[in-house]
C-alpha cells in the first residue's frame, strides 16, 4: 500500500473551528483541519504557535472553549484523556514524559494497560491467569522492543537514558497501545542525523505496515517535507496554510512566518 | 566475584519477570527465611522476639502499606497511624461481638474496614497533591484518633478508654493475650507478614503496580495512556490502608496487647513515613530496611553501653540515641538519598563488577 | 439536634456578645501564634522546597538556648534586662551557627535531591537537636524570661457589651511583634534580589545552580531567618506556657495553616493562621460541646481540606503548573 | 566583558590564541559505578566557538556539566584529569563561583523557573552581577531585542510558555550574567528553523561583538559546523575525531553520518535503508 | 550484676520527652532513696539492690520495650509510671510473675486484689481522689454531700486513659449527688494550648474546677486559669502537680489546691539521709539540690519506700533474703506500714500509715488538700476520706466487667497469707 493512496482515505479526525485560550493568552484561534485515515499529517509552525496545544485538544487534555472535534464519526467538544486513549489515540510528548522511575520494559508495558484485564485478585496471586496475561503482553512488547532496537536497555531505568533513547522508548510506549491515531510531538528533536533517519524509518514502517495514522509535529523541515502527505501550518494560533508539502513550502506566508529564506 | 549472573540465561519471559531473577538473590532469600523461621525462634531471647522482631515485622508491614501509597503511587500520606487504628478497633469490635470466630480471621478482615476508610479519605487525592495531600491526610489522622477517644462504643465503654486484648487461640495454641508466648506471637506475625509481603510483591510487579508507578511518575502521561487517575489512586489507598489496618490490628493484638488511642498518634504516622523514605521509596525490601533502621537501631544503641559495661545513665543513653540515630539518618541520606534499598542495590552492582572498580 | 447545630450557637453568640468577642480575640491570638510557626516553615519551603520537620524543635531549642544563657548569666550574678538581651543576642548567634551547620552538613551534600529526601533529612536534624538539646539543657521545663525582655504581663480588661473582655498584654505584644515580623520579612523577600533568587531556588535547584545563584548563601540566610522566627515563636509560646520539649508539638498546629495559606506565601501564613485560629476557636467553643469536645484537634485540618478542594495550592500558594 | 574589539580576528585562527578553557583527560563517573567519560580533552580558545558533536548518550552533556561543576548535584564526579578556565583550575569551584568568573551553562532541556515570569527568569541570570540596576536593565532590553517573542510574554509564568519560548528564555537568562564563556547544550532543540538561525546568529554576534567564547554541544551538525571554528566528535565517552570546522565538514564520514549527505548528495528521509548502521570509530 | 546475692529493681522513668518536667523529679526521688539504702544499709536485709533506670519517655511502646528488656533479669516488681503502660502490663504481670506497683495511678479497679492479684495501686485510686475533692468541695460549701446539689463542677483532664479514668464515676455521681459536671478534655497535643477549654470555662462559669493533668498540661492549666480570672481557691487538682507547675503562673496562682498524701520538704530523718549519702555524695542526678524535698521528688521517695518495704516484708514473710517477684507480691499484700514503722524508716509525720491486704491492693487512703502560697504548698485541711460507699461498689463492678471483657480472665490462684 503506498502512502499516496492512503491520503485518499476517509476522514479519521476532523477539527472544526477550535479555539482555546488560557486567560488572556490565545493559544488557538478558530482552527479547522482534518486527518485522513492512513496518512501522515504534519503540523508545523513557529514556536508558541499552538501546535502542542492542538495535540492536547485532540486527546482531551485541554478542553477548547469553542469548536468541535469529530473522531471516527463521533463528534464531541469535551472528553477525558483516558477516553481518548481507549478510542485508540496515543501520543508522545515534546518534553519527554516517560515514567522516570520505571525500566524501559515497564514503561512500554504500561502502554498495554488498557488491554490487560485481570483484576486485583489474580494480580495478588500472580500465578495462573495473571501470569499468562502478563506473558502474552510481554511478547507483544518484546516485538516493539525489537522493532525499535532497544533490546539492550530493556531493564534500565529510563531516567538515566540519554535523551534520544528516551524519545525512542516513548514511541515504543505509544506503539504498545496499538493506536489508530498516533500523535507525535517533535519526535526528532535533539537527535543527530543518523538517529533521525532511524526515527523516520520507524514512522514510515508504522504507517506503511500497520496503517497507523500519524499526526506529526516537527521543526526539521527536511523530515516534514519528506515524510508527510499533507501539512498544516499554524502561526500564533491561526491556521495560515494547509496542503501538500510542496504547496506549503512554496507558500510565501509560510516562508515568511516560519521557514525563513534559507530553506 | 561471587555475585554474578553470568551463565544464568532466562529461557522464558516468565523466568525473566520473576521477582528475584538472580540465583544468588534467591539463595539469600532462602537463608533469610530459614533464619526468620527457624533460627530466631530457636535461639532468640524473649526480648528479641517480643520487643525487637514482632514490632519490627509489624512496623515493616505498616511501612509496606504506606510504601504502596507513597513509594509506588506517589501519594504522600500522614494518616497511616489513623488507618492502623481503624484496623485495630475494627478487630477489637469484631472479636468482642463475635468471639467465636478466630481472631486471626478478624485481624485480616479488619483490613477491609481500614481500606474503606482509606478510600474515603483518599478521595481528595484527585485534586490535592504533594505535601498538600500529606496535610490533608492529617485530617484523617486527627479525626480518626478523635473518634477512638470520643466514640465510646468503639472501645466497649471501658472506663480506661483503652482496648484490651483477651486471650485467643489458634488451633488450641494461645496467640493473643497474656498466655501467648512471644514465640507463638512471633510465628503468627511472621506468617502474616510473609504472606502479605508476597502478595504485595505480586501486585506491584504486575499491571496494577505499573499503573500506580505510572501515576506516580507522571500522572498526566498516565492519563493519556488510558489510566484513570481516580480509580488508580483509590485502589492504592484501599490496598495501602488494608495493609496498614492489618498492621494496626497486629500491633494491638500481638504486640501491645492493650492500647490507648495515643498508640495511633501522629508520631507513628511520621515514623512510618520516615521508615519508608529512608528504606527506599517504591521498594518492599526497603520497607523492611527502614523499619530496621528506625526501630531496631535505637534498641541496639540503647543496649550498647550496658553490654559494654559502661555506666551511663538511662536518660543520657536516650539522648545519645537520638543524637546518633539522627546523625545516621543524615549520613545514610547523604550516602544514598534513594534509601537503603538502593544502597544495597548499588553495593550488589559493585559486587558484580568486583574486583574492578567499574 | 438541628436546632443545636444551626440555631443555638448563634443564639449564644447574640446573647453573650462579650464571650463572642473574647472567643474571636482568642482565635486571633492563636492564629497569630500559629502564623508565627507557619512562617518558619514558609521561609524554608520557599527557599529550598524543603518541608522542614525540624521547625518545631528549633522553636524549643532556640527558646531553651535563650533561657539557658540567661540562667548562666544570672548564676554569675549578672541578671536583669541587659543580661536578657545579651542572652537574646547570643541565642540568635546560636541560630546562625545552626543555620550554617545545617547548610554545610546536610543541605549541601543533598542539593538537587527530591523534596521528600530533604524532608527526611530534616527529620534527622530533629533527632539530633532533641538529643543535643536534652544533653545540654536537660528535660525539665524552664520559665521564659518574659519580664526581663520587657514583655508585658497582666491583662487589659475592657467592659463592653455587658460583659468583660480581657485581653492579655502578652497576647497583644505577640500579635504586634508577629505582625511586624511578617511585614518585615515579606518586604525583605519581595523587594530584594535575594527574594527572587529564593523563589528560583525553590523552583529548581539545578537551574538555580546553573545561573550562578549561590545555594549555600541562600540557605544560610533562610535557615537563619527561620531560626530567628523560631526564637520569637519560642519566646511567645514559652511565655504562655513553659519552655520545654512539650512545645515541639505545637508545630503541628502550623500544618493546616500552611496548607490553607499556601506553602510559599508569607502573607498566606498570616491569613491562614487567622482563619484557622478563629475558625477553630469558634468551632470548638460553639459546636464542640455537641460532639463531646476536643474537635479542635481535627477541625483545623478539615477547614484546610475544604479550602484545598477549591484551591489545591492553598489560598496564596503558587499555582501548580500542569503541562506537557 | 573585556576586550571586545580584537575578538573577531582571533576567533578565526584557534590554535595560537590562548585557551580560555581547557579540559585535560577527564573521567566522569555517575553513582560511583557508571563510567561515562573515559578521558576527554578539549580546548576552547579565547573568543572561539567550539562544537562538540556526537550521538545520543555519547557524553556531551556530561562533558559540559563537568566543566560547569553541575555534575555534583547529579551524583556524578570527575575522577581524573583537570579543567582550567582562564588559566586557573576550576574543578573545585562551586557553580556559583564559576558564573561569577564568567562561565555559564545553558542546560539541555531548558530548565526555566516555572513559577517565575519570563522577566524574572531573565533577571535571575543577573544574580551574580554587581554592576547596578541600570546595567541590568540595559541588558534586559538587549535580550528583548534579540528575542522579541520573549518581550511579548514577559509577564507569563515560564512554566506556561511553549517549548521554544522556554529555550529562548534559558539562553537569554545565561546572557544576563554577562559571561566570558557560555556552554550551550543543544540550543537548537525544539526551535523553529528560523529561530535556530537566529540563535546561531546571536551566538556569532555575541562572539564577535563581545568576545564571548562558546562551547556548543549540538545535534544539528550542519548548523554547528557552519558557525563553529573547531569541532570535536565524541563517541561513547571518548573523543574520536577533532579538527577545524571546515575540515570536519569535508570529512566523508562526518558527511555521511552527521550531515546525512552521502556520496551523491542529500537523500530523502523516505529512502533511508534500514540496514545502514554506522561504523564506530573506536570502542 | 544480676548475681544471686542481689535484688534487681528496675525503675521505669522519663527524663526526656514532653513529660520530662514531671518525670524527672519523680525519677530522682525513687532512685535516690534506693541508692541511699544501698549506701547506708548495704541494701535491704543485707542484700544489695541493683537499681536500673529504663527510659520510657511516657511512651507506651517504649515502656513495653523496657518491660521486655528487664524481664529476663528477674525484677521483683515494676513501676510503670504511666497509666498507659500499666494497662498492658496488667495482663502480663500474672503470667510473668512480676508484680506491678502503679502507685495512685493506673486502672482504679486493680485495687481489687482478688481479681488482680499482681497489681497494686496504693494508697488511693483516681476514683478515691475524685471523691475526696468532692468531699472537700462539700466541706467548703458548708459540709455534707447534699451541698453539692445544683453545683456546677468543671473537670479538665488529659484526654488519655489517665484523665478518662474517673469519667464513669463522674457520670454516676453527678446523677446521685445532683451536681452538674462539665467536661473539658485536653488532647496531649494541645497540652500547651488550652485557650478553648478556658473560654468554655468562662462561659459555663463552673463553681469549682477539678484538674487531672500531667506534665505541661498542669502548668498551662494553672496559667490559663489565672488569665481567665478563675478563683484559684476553687481550682483543685488530683495529686500530680508539683511546685514547678505552679510557680510559672506567678502570684495569681496563690490559692491553687491539690490533693496529697505526704508532706513536702526535707525535715525528715530519711530525707536528711538521702541528702547526706546520695545528694551530697554526688550520686544523685538531681539538676538542682533545691529540688530535693519538693512534692514530686518526695512522691518518688514514697514510691521507693513502698518498694523497699514490700521487699522487706517479703523477706520476713518468706524467710528468703534474695526475694523473687512472687515473694514481693506477697510482701505487698502483707504490707503494713504503721506509725512505728514510719518512725523507724525516718518518715515520721510524712504520711499516714498504710496497710494492704490480699483483697485490698490499694488502701483507699485519705488525702489532704494543700494550697499554693506563692512559694510552696501548704497543707490546709485534715485528711479527707474518699466516698468509699460509692467507690468500692463501683470498683467491684468494674473489676468484674474487666474480667468479663477479657475472658478468659484467670481466676486468682495465688494463696492468701492469712494475716
Ligand atoms: N545522572 C546520571 N546517572 C547515571 N548515568 C547517567 C546520568 N546522566 C547521564 N548518564 C549516562 O551517561 C551517558 C552520557 O549521557 P549524556 O547526557 O552526557 O549524553 P549526551 O551526549 O548529552 O546525549 P544526548 O544527545 O542524548 O543529550 C549516557 O549513557 C547516560 O545514560
Ligand atoms: N496551560 C497553559 N497555560 C497558559 N498558556 C499556555 C498553556 N499551554 C500553552 N500555553 C501558551 O499557548 C501558546 C501555544 O503553546 P504550544 O505549546 O501549543 O506551542 P507550540 O506550537 O507547541 O510551540 P513549540 O514549537 O515551541 O513547542 C504558547 O504561547 C503557550 O505559552
Ligand atoms: C503515672 C502518673 C504519674 C502520670 C499520669 N497521671 C498517668 O496516670 O498516666
Ligand atoms: Mg510544542
Ligand atoms: Mg545531552
TrEMBL record, chain A:
Domain (ABC transporter) ranges: 13-261
MF (Gene Ontology): ATP binding; ATP hydrolysis activity
Keyword terms, alphabetized: ATP-binding, Nucleotide-binding, Transport
Superkingdom of the source species: Bacteria
InterPro entries: AAA+_ATPase (IPR003593), ABC_AA/LPS_Transport (IPR051120), ABC_transporter-like_ATP-bd (IPR003439), BCA_ABC_TP_C (IPR032823), P-loop_NTPase (IPR027417)
Pfam families: ABC_tran, BCA_ABC_TP_C
GO cellular-component term (any): plasma membrane
Protein name: Branched-chain amino acid transport system ATP-binding protein
Gene source species: Aquamicrobium lusatiense
Lineage of origin: Bacteria, Pseudomonadati, Pseudomonadota, Alphaproteobacteria, Hyphomicrobiales
Automatic annotation (TrEMBL), chain B:
CDD domains in the record: TM_PBP1_LivM_like
Bilayer topology: Multi-pass membrane protein
Annotated source species: Aquamicrobium lusatiense
This protein's name: Branched-chain amino acid transport system permease protein
Record flagged with keyword Transferase: no
Top-rank taxon: Bacteria
Subcellular location per the Swiss-Prot or TrEMBL entry: Cell membrane
An MF annotation (GO) of this entry: branched-chain amino acid transmembrane transporter activity
From TrEMBL, chain C:
GO cellular component, one term: plasma membrane
Keywords: Amino-acid transport, Cell membrane, Membrane, Transmembrane, Transmembrane helix, Transport
Subcellular location per the Swiss-Prot or TrEMBL entry: Cell membrane
Mode of membrane association: Multi-pass membrane protein
Transmembrane segments: 20-43, 50-71, 83-102, 114-137, 170-189, 218-237, 257-278, 290-310
Keyword Protein biosynthesis: no
GO BP of this protein: amino acid transport
Coiled-coil region: none
Name of protein: Branched-chain amino acid transport system permease protein
UniProtKB/TrEMBL annotation, chain D:
Record keyword Transit peptide present: no
Sequence ranges assigned to domain ABC transporter in this UniProt record: 21-261
Leader sequence segment: none
BP GO terms, sorted: L-amino acid transport
SUPFAM superfamilies with a match to the protein in the record: P-loop containing nucleoside triphosphate hydrolases
PROSITE patterns: ABC_TRANSPORTER_2
GO molecular function, one term: branched-chain amino acid transmembrane transporter activity
Record keywords: Amino-acid transport, ATP-binding, Nucleotide-binding, Transport
The keyword ATP-binding is annotated on this UniProt entry: yes
Top-level taxonomic group: Bacteria
Pfam families on file: ABC_tran (PF00005)
Family, as annotated: Belongs to the ABC transporter superfamily.
Name of the featured protein: Branched-chain amino acid transport system ATP-binding protein
Amino acid at each position: 500500500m503506498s502512502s499516496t493512496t492512503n491520503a485518499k482515505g476517509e476522514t479519521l479526525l476532523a477539527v472544526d473551528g477550535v479555539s482555546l485560550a488560557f486567560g488572556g493568552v490565545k493559544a488557538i484561534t478558530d482552527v479547522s483541519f482534518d486527518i485522513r485515515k492512513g496518512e501522515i499529517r504534519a503540523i508545523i509552525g513557529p514556536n508558541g504557535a499552538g501546535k502542542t496545544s492542538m495535540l492536547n485538544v485532540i486527546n482531551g487534555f485541554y478542553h477548547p472553549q469553542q469548536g468541535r472535534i469529530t473522531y471516527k464519526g463521533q463528534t464531541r467538544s469535551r472528553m477525558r484523556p483516558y477516553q481518548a486513549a481507549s478510542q485508540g489515540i496515543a501520543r508522545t510528548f515534546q518534553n519527554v514524559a516517560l515514567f522516570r522511575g520505571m525500566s524501559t520494559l515497564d514503561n512500554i508495558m504500561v502502554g498495554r494497560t488498557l488491554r490487560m484485564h485481570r483484576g486485583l485478585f489474580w494480580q495478588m496471586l500472580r500465578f495462573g491467569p495473571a501470569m499468562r496475561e502478563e506473558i502474552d503482553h510481554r511478547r507483544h512488547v518484546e516485538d516493539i522492543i525489537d522493532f525499535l532496537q532497544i533490546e539492550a536497555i530493556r531493564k534500565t531505568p529510563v531516567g538515566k537514558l540519554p535523551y534520544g533513547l528516551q524519545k525512542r522508548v516513548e514511541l515504543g510506549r505509544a506503539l504498545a497501545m496499538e493506536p489508530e491515531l498516533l500523535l507525535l510531538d517533535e519526535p526528532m528533536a535533539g537527535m543527530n542525523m543518523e538517529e533521525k533517519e532511524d526515527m523516520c524509518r520507524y514512522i514510515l514502517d508504522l504507517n506503511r505496515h500497520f496503517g497507523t495514522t500519524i499526526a506529526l509535529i516537527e521543526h526539521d523541515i527536511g523530515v516534514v517535507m519528506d515524510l508527510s502527505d499533507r501539512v498544516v501550518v499554524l502561526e500564533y494560533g491561526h491556521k495560515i496554510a494547509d496542503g501538500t508539502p510542496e504547496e506549503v513550502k512554496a507558500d510565501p506566508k509560510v516562508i515568511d512566518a516560519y521557514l525563513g529564506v534559507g530553506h | 566475584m561471587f555475585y554474578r549472573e553470568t551463565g544464568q540465561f532466562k529461557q522464558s519471559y516468565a523466568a525473566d519477570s520473576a521477582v528475584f531473577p538472580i540465583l544468588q538473590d534467591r539463595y539469600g532469600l532462602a537463608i533469610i527465611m530459614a533464619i526468620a523461621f527457624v533460627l530466631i525462634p530457636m535461639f532468640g531471647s524473649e526480648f528479641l522476639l517480643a520487643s525487637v522482631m514482632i514490632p519490627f515485622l509489624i512496623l515493616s508491614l505498616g511501612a509496606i502499606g504506606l510504601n504502596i501509597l507513597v513509594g509506588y503511587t506517589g501519594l504522600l500520606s500522614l494518616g497511616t497511624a489513623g488507618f492502623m487504628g481503624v484496623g485495630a478497633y475494627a478487630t477489637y469490635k469484631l472479636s468482642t461481638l463475635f468471639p467465636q470466630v478466630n481472631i486471626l480471621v478478624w485481624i485480616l478482615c479488619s483490613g477491609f474496614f481500614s481500606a474503606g476508610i482509606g478510600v474515603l479519605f483518599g478521595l481528595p487525592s484527585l485534586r490535592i497533591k504533594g505535601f498538600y495531600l500529606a496535610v490533608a491526610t492529617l485530617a484523617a489522622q486527627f479525626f480518626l484518633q478523635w473518634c477512638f477517644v470520643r466514640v465510646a462504643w468503639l472501645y466497649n465503654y471501658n472506663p480506661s478508654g483503652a482496648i484490651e486484648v483477651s486471650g485467643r487461640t489458634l488451633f488450641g495454641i494461645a496467640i493473643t493475650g497474656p498466655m501467648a508466648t512471644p514465640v507463638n506471637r512471633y510465628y503468627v506475625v511472621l506468617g502474616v507478614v510473609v504472606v502479605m509481603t508476597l502478595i504485595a510483591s505480586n501486585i506491584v510487579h504486575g499491571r496494577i503496580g505499573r499503573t500506580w508507578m505510572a501515576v506516580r511518575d507522571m500522572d498526566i502521561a498516565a492519563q493519556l495512556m488510558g489510566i484513570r487517575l481516580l480509580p488508580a489512586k483509590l485502589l492504592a489507598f484501599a490496598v495501602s490502608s488494608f495493609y496498614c489496618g492489618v498492621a494496626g490490628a497486629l500491633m494491638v493484638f500481638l504486640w501491645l496487647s492493650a492500647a490507648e488511642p495515643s498508640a495511633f498518634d501522629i508520631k507513628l504516622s511520621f515514623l512510618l513515613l520516615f521508615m519508608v523514605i529512608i528504606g527506599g521509596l517504591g521498594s518492599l525490601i526497603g520497607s523492611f530496611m527502614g523499619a530496621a533502621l528506625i526501630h531496631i537501631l535505637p534498641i541496639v544503641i540503647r543496649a550498647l553501653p550496658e553490654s559494654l559495661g559502661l555506666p551511663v545513665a538511662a536518660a543520657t543513653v536516650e539522648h545519645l540515641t537520638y543524637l546518633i540515630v539522627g546523625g545516621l539518618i543524615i549520613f545514610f541520606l547523604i550516602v544514598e538519598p534513594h534509601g537503603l534499598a538502593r544502597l544495597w542495590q548499588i553495593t550488589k552492582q559493585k559486587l558484580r563488577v568486583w574486583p574492578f572498580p567499574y | 439536634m438541628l436546632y443545636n447545630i444551626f440555631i443555638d450557637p448563634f443564639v449564644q453568640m447574640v446573647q453573650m456578645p462579650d464571650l463572642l468577642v473574647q472567643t474571636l480575640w482568642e482565635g486571633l491570638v492563636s492564629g497569630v501564634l500559629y502564623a508565627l510557626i507557619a512562617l518558619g516553615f514558609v521561609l524554608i519551603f520557599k527557599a529550598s522546597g524543603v518541608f522542614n520537620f525540624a521547625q518545631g524543635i528549633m522553636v524549643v531549642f532556640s527558646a531553651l538556648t535563650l533561657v539557658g544563657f540567661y540562667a548562666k548569666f544570672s548564676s554569675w550574678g549578672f541578671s536583669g534586662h541587659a543580661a536578657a538581651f545579651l542572652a537574646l543576642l547570643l541565642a540568635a548567634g546560636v541560630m546562625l551557627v545552626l543555620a550554617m551547620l545545617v547548610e554545610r552538613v546536610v543541605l549541601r551534600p543533598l542539593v538537587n535531591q527530591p523534596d521528600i529526601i530533604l524532608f527526611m533529612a530534616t527529620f534527622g536534624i530533629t533527632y539530633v537537636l532533641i538529643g543535643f538539646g536534652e544533653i545540654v539543657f536537660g528535660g525539665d521545663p524552664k520559665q521564659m524570661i518574659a519580664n526581663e525582655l520587657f514583655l508585658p504581663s497582666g491583662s487589659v480588661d475592657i467592659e463592653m457589651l455587658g460583659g468583660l473582655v480581657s485581653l492579655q498584654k502578652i497576647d497583644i505584644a505577640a500579635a504586634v511583634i508577629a505582625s511586624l515580623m511578617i511585614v518585615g520579612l515579606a518586604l525583605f523577600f519581595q523587594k530584594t534580589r535575594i527574594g527572587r533568587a529564593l523563589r528560583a531556588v525553590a523552583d529548581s535547584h539545578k537551574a538555580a545552580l546553573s545561573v550562578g545563584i549561590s545555594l549555600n548563601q541562600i540557605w544560610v540566610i533562610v535557615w537563619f531567618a527561620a531560626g530567628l522566627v523560631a526564637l520569637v515563636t519560642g519566646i511567645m509560646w514559652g511565655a504562655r506556657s513553659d519552655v520545654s520539649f512539650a512545645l515541639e508539638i505545637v508545630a503541628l498546629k502550623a500544618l493546616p495553616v500552611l496548607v490553607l495559606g499556601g506553602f510559599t506565601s508569607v502573607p498566606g501564613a498570616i491569613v491562614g493562621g487567622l482563619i484557622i485560629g478563629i475558625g477553630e476557636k469558634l468551632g470548638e467553643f460553639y459546636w464542640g460541646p455537641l460532639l463531646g469536645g476536643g474537635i479542635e484537634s481535627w477541625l483545623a485540618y478539615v477547614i484546610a481540606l475544604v479550602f484545598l478542594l477549591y484551591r489545591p495550592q492553598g489560598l496564596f500558594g503558587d499555582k501548580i503548573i500542569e503541562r506537557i | 566583558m573585556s576586550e571586545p574589539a580584537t575578538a573577531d580576528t582571533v576567533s578565526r585562527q584557534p590554535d595560537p590564541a590562548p585557551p580560555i578553557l581547557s579540559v585535560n583527560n577527564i573521567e566522569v563517573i555517575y553513582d560511583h559505578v557508571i563510567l561515562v567519560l573515559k578521558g576527554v580533552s578539549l580546548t576552547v580558545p579565547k573568543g572561539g566557538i567550539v562544537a562538540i558533536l556526537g550521538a545520543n548518550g555519547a557524553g556531551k552533556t556530561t562533558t559540559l556539566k563537568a566543566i560547569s561543576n553541575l555534575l555534583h548535584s547529579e551524583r556524578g564526579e570527575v575522577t581524573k584529569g583537570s579543567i582550567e578556565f582562564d588559566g586557573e583550575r576550576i574543578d573545585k569551584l562551586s557553580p556559583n563561583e564559576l558564573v561569577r568568573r564568567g562561565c555559564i551553562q545553558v542546560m539541555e532541556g531548558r530548565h526555566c523557573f516555572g513559577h517565575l515570569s519570563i522577566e524574572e527568569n531573565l533577571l535571575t541570570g543577573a544574580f551574580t552581577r554587581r554592576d547596578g540596576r541600570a546595567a541590568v536593565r540595559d541588558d534586559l532590553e538587549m535580550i528583548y531585542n534579540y528575542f522579541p517573542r520573549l518581550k511579548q510574554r514577559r509577564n507569563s509564568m515560564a512554566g506556561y510558555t511553549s517549548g521554544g519560548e522556554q529555550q529562548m528564555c534559558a539562553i537569554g537568562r545565561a546572557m544576563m550574567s554577562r559571561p566570558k564563556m557560555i556552554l550551550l547544550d543543544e540550543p537548537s532543540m525544539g526551535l523553529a528553523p528560523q529561530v535556530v538561525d537566529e540563535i546561531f546568529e546571536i551566538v556569532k554576534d555575541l562572539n564577535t561583538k563581545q568576545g564571548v567564547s562558546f562551547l556548543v554541544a549540538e545535534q544539528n551538525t550542519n548548523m554547528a559546523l557552519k558557525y563553529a571554528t573547531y569541532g570535536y566528535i565524541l563517541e561513547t565517552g571518548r573523543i574520536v575525531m577533532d579538527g577545524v570546522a571546515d575540515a570536519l565538514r569535508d570529512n566523508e564520514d562526518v558527511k555521511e553520518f552527521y550531515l546525512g549527505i552521502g556520496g551523491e548528495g542529500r537523500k530523502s528521509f523516505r529512502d533511508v535503508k534500514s540496514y545502514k548502521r554506522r561504523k564506530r570509530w573506536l570502542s | 550484676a544480676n548475681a544471686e546475692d542481689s535484688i534487681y529493681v528496675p525503675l521505669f522513668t522519663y527524663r526526656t520527652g514532653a513529660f520530662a518536667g514531671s518525670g524527672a523529679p519523680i525519677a530522682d526521688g525513687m532512685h535516690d532513696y534506693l541508692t541511699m539504702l544501698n549506701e547506708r544499709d548495704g541494701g535491704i536485709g543485707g542484700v544489695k539492690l541493683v537499681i536500673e533506670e529504663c527510659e520510657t519517655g511516657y511512651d507506651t511502646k517504649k515502656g513495653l520495650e523496657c518491660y521486655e528488656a528487664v524481664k529476663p533479669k528477674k525484677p521483683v516488681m515494676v513501676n510503670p509510671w504511666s497509666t498507659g503502660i500499666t494497662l498492658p502490663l496488667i495482663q502480663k504481670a500474672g503470667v510473668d510473675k512480676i508484680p506491678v506497683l502503679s502507685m495512685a495511678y493506673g486502672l482504679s479497679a486493680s485495687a481489687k486484689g482478688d481479681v488482680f492479684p499482681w497489681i497494686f495501686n496504693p494508697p488511693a485510686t483516681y476514683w478515691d481522689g475524685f471523691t475526696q475533692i468532692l468531699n472537700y468541695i462539700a466541706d467548703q460549701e458548708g459540709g455534707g454531700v447534699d451541698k453539692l446539689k445544683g453545683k456546677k463542677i468543671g473537670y479538665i483532664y488529659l484526654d488519655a486513659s489517665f484523665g478518662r479514668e474517673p469519667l464513669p464515676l463522674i457520670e454516676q455521681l453527678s446523677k446521685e449527688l445532683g451536681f452538674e459536671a462539665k467536661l473539658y478534655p485536653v488532647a496531649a497535643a494541645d497540652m500547651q494550648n488550652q485557650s478553648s477549654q478556658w473560654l468554655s470555662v468562662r462561659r459555663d462559669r463552673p463553681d469549682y474546677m477539678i484538674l487531672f493533668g500531667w506534665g505541661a498540661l498542669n502548668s498551662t492549666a494553672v496559667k490559663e486559669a489565672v488569665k481567665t480570672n478563675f478563683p484559684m481557691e476553687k481550682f483543685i487538682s488530683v495529686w500530680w502537680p508539683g511546685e514547678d507547675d505552679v510557680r510559672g503562673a506567678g502570684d495569681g496562682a496563690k490559692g491553687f489546691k491539690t490533693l496529697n498524701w505526704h508532706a513536702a520538704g526535707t525535715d525528715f530523718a530519711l530525707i536528711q539521709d538521702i541528702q547526706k549519702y546520695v545528694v551530697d555524695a554526688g550520686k544523685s542526678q538531681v539538676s538542682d539540690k533545691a529540688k530535693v524535698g519538693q512534692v514530686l521528688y518526695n512522691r518518688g521517695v514514697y514510691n521507693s519506700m513502698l518498694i523497699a518495704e514490700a521487699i522487706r516484708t517479703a523477706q520476713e514473710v518468706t524467710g528468703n533474703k534474695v526475694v523473687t517477684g512472687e515473694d514481693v507480691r506477697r510482701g505487698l499484700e502483707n504490707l503494713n506500714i504503721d506509725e512505728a514503722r514510719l518512725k523507724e524508716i525516718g518518715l515520721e509525720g510524712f504520711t499516714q500509715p498504710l496497710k494492704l491486704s490480699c483483697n485490698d491492693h490499694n488502701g483507699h487512703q485519705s488525702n489532704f488538700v494543700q494550697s499554693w502560697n506563692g512559694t510552696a504548698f501548704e497543707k490546709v485541711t485534715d485528711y479527707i476520706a474518699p466516698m468509699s460507699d460509692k467507690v468500692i461498689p463501683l470498683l467491684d463492678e468494674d473489676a468484674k466487667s474487666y474480667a468479663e471483657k477479657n475472658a478468659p480472665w484467670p481466676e486468682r490462684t495465688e494463696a492468701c497469707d492469712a494475716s
